[in-house]
Specification:
Distance between the termini: 54 Å
Radius of gyration: 34 Å
Helix content: 40-55%
Number of strands: 13
CATH architecture of the domain at 148-317: 3-Layer(aba) Sandwich
Shape: elongated
Order of helices and strands: HEEEEEEEHHHEHEHEHEHEHEHHHH
Number of helices: 13
Strand order of the largest sheet: 10-9-8-11-12-13
Amino acid sequence: MKKTLIFLFIFSSSFLLSQEILLNVVDKSNDDGSALVLSWDTSMLKAADIIIEREAPDGEQIVVTRSEESVGTFEDGGNIKPGIVYTYRLTVHDNNGEILQIIKTTGESSAQWFNKDKISLLILMILITVSIIYYIYSAKSGKDLYIRKIGGLESMDESVGRATEMGRPILFIPGTLDLDDMQTIAGLTILRRLAQKAAEYDSKLIVPVCRSMVLSTAKEIVKEAYMKAGRPDAYDPDSVFYLTDDQFGYVAGVDGIIVREKPAANFFLGAFYAESLILAETGFASGAIQTAGTAMPSQLPFFVVACDFTLIGEELFAASAYLSKDPHQLGSLKGQDFGKALFIVVLLVGIILEISGVHFLKNFLTLH
């Protein structure tokens, strides 16, 4: 009997102690230490209004939340700094506004190095990074990496040769955007190879531009290409020139050049907008062989119907690696292709698992 009474006393004491814990403050997981999570339970009291205040070490006090719910949680992310101990005070009021109980507790936040909810992204990033490094070393060691042939780039020599045989110039348009656009940079990369071929074949090159920064860069690229081809004396500084920044004024100027000079090969490689069809149609009417490339989805149909070859989307960006055969660029390109293939495989496996009622992969890849 005595043992039973002792057991009941211990049980009732622990129950009462658990009821006294009305406010808990814990650090929010997987963050930079800028939030604390508050939870309270005042179900043992007839609470009508609950106020939680926060006091910083410097004495500043603010009300972080107010609630009529006896049980609840709240994320305090207002000016919380990691490594600082904050004091929280929970005040319980009844229907008459009388204070039933006041509870105080402390909490401290800390920053985590890794967000465990995004571990799937880390794994995918490691796989792609390892594949890029592997392909770069493979290319450096002399291994022949397969890259799908791109018709527009393969036909470059043919276009330059045709212009040389006909005694007519080559026209190159690096898009209508400035040097801060990746499509413009990709187009200028192709210009380097094209200018070198033009120098070797002794063909006239015409490069009208609509941006001052593009003008300076294109001049240097063409000049360097002629030097690399061993014909610096054949370089014409006036072959690269500025027209205007105005969109349709620039198009009108280029169309005039096409009509007057009648180039045998036209290259439209870069960012284009409404002017794409005007340029391509004028070039088509002049009888030139045309190669176009852009990452603007809305302009691709016009280039496809009016040009002989079209670089679609990423083919424009892959041109640098395709033409230069540089191991670093080839390895990066193959590594990115591996990443795309990996995503496709994961997507297909995920669809099959979801249809089968297995949600492991979806839960693993879901970012919280």
